[in-house]
């Protein structure tokens, strides 16, 4: 712990590596918890599977 | 917020759109929170990845 | 399954009962899955623990 | 309820069945809750999507 | 990783310790992943916050 | 979307505000998604409710 679940769009492996590195560093700096203690799961979602305000993102972002 | 995570089976894009629209409307009516404030993530799961009562759904629903 | 996780604000027991009944009925009608198969967890959150657009809701909703 | 979300690596259907059976039995024995009440979702993750200590598992497990 | 989220009822610290120890050991035996790699979060829920089949557990378990 | 769930220890409101601001900014910079699109839920956990390597953190961090 801490444990971060990140639900976002599809992304490249390079972006995942950068996201994991920087989110971990940022949270470490704010909370003073060692970087080694952090785990992150990135979940990649289709715009068909996300709703905002009652509409699918795949419809509103056309 | 509110934020809804919906774990269900595979479904068509039309069903996803209907589900997002109607769950948002329903929760809006119950809680009085504007529809714009709602986010929903639909997670589609294989029956091989769900257990109920100690058995996979893919076994019990054969 | 399906399984719904609902993150929202504090609410009364009456609202929880109504939310569980109506979300279940709504999803049942959309997907044709029996109501008995649905589980819902309601998580009640302080406005101090929710961020939107980089700000706590307890700050933006003052 | 109880409801278990298990984030792990890719695994065979046989391992999923064994995991669901044994986690359910174990939790039943500890808590005294009937096995029928347990639901489990297994989420299979790529090593590219998991970070530990600021690095992707796909990098540290090379 | 693996990461287990366990949503259950209120329980004593002794039960939490036993649950964490035995779920970790069980999953280790099934998957062959070292026990050190497992994290578990136990979330304790009021029966007012759980719905099954459209009804709160606090109503159906009276 | 994106949606971030952050499971960590108890923390002050000031730390929560800083965490939400900086995680949002960091993820915005990595992914190029507008800050307004991000939601974060902070879940505060007792060390009695977190297990690592089969032991409660409240035991290993004594």
TrEMBL record, chains A, B, C, D, E, F:
> NCBIfam families in the record, alphabetically?
DmpI
Keywords, in A-Z order: Isomerase
Provide a Gene Ontology MF annotation, just one.
isomerase activity
The residue range of the signal peptide is none
Q: What is this protein's name? A: 4-oxalocrotonate tautomerase
The segment(s) forming the 4-oxalocrotonate tautomerase-like domain are 2-58
Q: Name one Pfam family in it.
A: Tautomerase
